[in-house]
């Protein structure tokens, strides 16, 4: 089953895709604290490389409107968002109970501007989803997003609000099935959990497993209820290299896409799976990492590219810049252009992140076992998504029925939509000034959808409830975990 493919030179197809790239120049100013390894500054470094490689000539650059508290509560609880919105380093002592419940502290410190940082991150991903939905972009990019550990009412692993879940919820308004792929070295637990009982989202996470944060993501975790077989976990060992990663990533993603037939793909590109990461033990080169972006792009589906982890920041910036090139159908030259952070790239001043000679603990036998088991699980997804395989109307006007039946579409027609994609005034020469295709995120006016507003059709329930684990479902998961069994009862 597993065949090791050679890792050849990366080739991108030069065909033109319309790219919307989201960047907020405030994002690099947020600071988790001295000694904390999450550094939003890496997003600014990435942006500087992107601009100096002149990729702005190829794509449209936007600053998204920051998400509102109301938008954030489309996944998170009101109490949690209220806390995130109000807490500051100066008043944290007034919230001892909340700090504990919502898990802020050491890994997830309260820093100045935390709420703004969360809103920038989520705003970009939600806006990106809106642009994919309205067809004004083929690929959207938000490196301030990808914060996959955040839970419904809990911060986790340097993540506070889950832009990915919010973006997928937005995509579900138009797309019957969405595939989420996570190449961060850590398990994409927050996204998996949000859709664990849902068959309209398939999550697929490639990650280091075994005595490693967050501890979840075993091969046997495959989803429950309607979501059974719609969570895919690829638990990897230390030192995976470009050839092994490609050889498991490509056939697996291809099988999922062939059988599940998603109409949009969200790709989390966490840079901590790169060789030499401060936290991650993988051994991917920049090109091995970017091969995932290139492969998913080659599938030709609407695609969202997000950031994520990544703690050797010069390598994260290199790789995300290179991957932005790949999205645009170009291989960036090795020699770094002069840029605002040039000294970070000493001593080589080259683009490439190379792999090391570390041992690859993923044997061919091990990878074969993984691939065989996962593909046999996927066999169940082949014919029976609860929403039948159907053509999604290409024309926005044809979506009338779908929109009216979706709970979240209520109240979006009376002028309550916010103006989106307000473009940056500063650096305006880099920013596209077309307004006509701007995305509109669907916000509703009431604080909550009240029971009577929930429309009748079944699939809309998926949107409404799919991001929430019911109590009994959580109990089922807890029980299974306690027993150490997989959900099939196999061992
Ligand atoms: Zn990570």
TrEMBL record:
One of its GO terms (molecular function) is histone deacetylase activity, hydrolytic mechanism. GO terms for cellular component: Rpd3L complex; Rpd3L-Expanded complex; Rpd3S complex. It is found in: Nucleus. Pfam families: Hist_deacetyl. The keyword DNA damage does not apply. InterPro entries: HDAC_I/II, HDACs, His_deacetylse_dom, His_deacetylse_dom_sf, Ureohydrolase_dom_sf. This is Histone deacetylase. It comes from Candida parapsilosis (Yeast). The gene is RPD3.
């Amino acid at each position: 089953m597993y065949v090791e493919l050679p890792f050849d030179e990366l080739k991108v197809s030069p065909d033109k895709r319309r790219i919307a790239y989201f960047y907020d120049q405030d994002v690099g100013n947020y600071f988790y604290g001295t000694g904390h390894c999450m550094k939003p500054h890496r997003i600014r470094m990435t942006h500087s490389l992107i601009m100096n490689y002149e990729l702005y000539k190829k794509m449209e650059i936007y600053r998204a409107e920051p998400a509102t508290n109301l938008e954030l509560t489309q996944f998170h609880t009101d109490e949690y968002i209220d806390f995130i919105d109000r807490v500051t380093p100066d008043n944290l002592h007034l919230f001892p109970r909340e700090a504990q419940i919502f898990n802020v502290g050491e890994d997830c410190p309260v820093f100045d501007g935390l709420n703004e940082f969360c809103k920038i991150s989520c705003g970009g991903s939600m806006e990106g989803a809106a642009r994919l939905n309205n067809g004004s972009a083929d690929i959207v990019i938000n490196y301030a997003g990808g914060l996959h550990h955040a839970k419904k009412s809990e911060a986790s692993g340097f993540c506070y609000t889950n832009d990915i879940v919010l973006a997928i919820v937005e995509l579900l308004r138009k797309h019957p099935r969405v595939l989420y792929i996570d190449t961060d070295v850590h398990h994409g637990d927050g996204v998996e959990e949000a859709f664990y009982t849902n068959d309209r989202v398939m999550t697929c996470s490639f990650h280091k497993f075994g005595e490693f944060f967050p501890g979840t993501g075993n091969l046997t975790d495959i989803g429950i209820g309607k979501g059974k077989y719609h969570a895919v976990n690829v638990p990897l060992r230390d030192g995976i290299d470009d050839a092994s990663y490609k050889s498991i990533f490509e056939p697996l993603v291809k099988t999922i896409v062939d059988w599940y037939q998603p109409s949009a793909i969200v790709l989390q590109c966490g840079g901590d799976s790169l060789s030499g990461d401060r936290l991650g033990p993988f051994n991917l080169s920049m090109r091995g990492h970017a091969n995932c972006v290139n492969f998913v792009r080659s599938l030709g589906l609407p695609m969202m590219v997000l950031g994520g982890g990544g703690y050797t920041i010069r390598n994260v910036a290199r790789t995300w810049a290179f991957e932005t090139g790949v999205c645009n159908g170009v291989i960036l030259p090795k020699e770094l252009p002069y840029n605002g952070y040039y000294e970070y790239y000493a001593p080589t001043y080259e683009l490439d992140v190379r792999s090391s000679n570390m041992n690859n603990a993923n044997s061919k036998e091990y990878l074969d076992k993984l691939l065989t088991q996962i593909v046999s699980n996927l066999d169940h997804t082949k014919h029976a998504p609860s929403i039948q395989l159907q053509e999604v109307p290409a024309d926005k006007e044809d979506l009338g029925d779908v929109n009216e039946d979706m709970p979240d579409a209520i109240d979006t027609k009376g002028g309550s939509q916010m103006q989106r994609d307000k473009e940056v005034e500063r650096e305006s020469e880099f920013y596209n000034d077309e307004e006509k295709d701007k995305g509109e995120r669907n916000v509703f006016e009431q604080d909550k959808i009240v029971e009577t507003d929930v429309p009748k059709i079944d699939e809309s329930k998926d949107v409404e409830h799919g991001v929430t684990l019911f109590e009994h479902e959580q109990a089922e998961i807890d029980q299974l975990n306690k027993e150490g069994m997989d959900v099939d009862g196999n061992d």
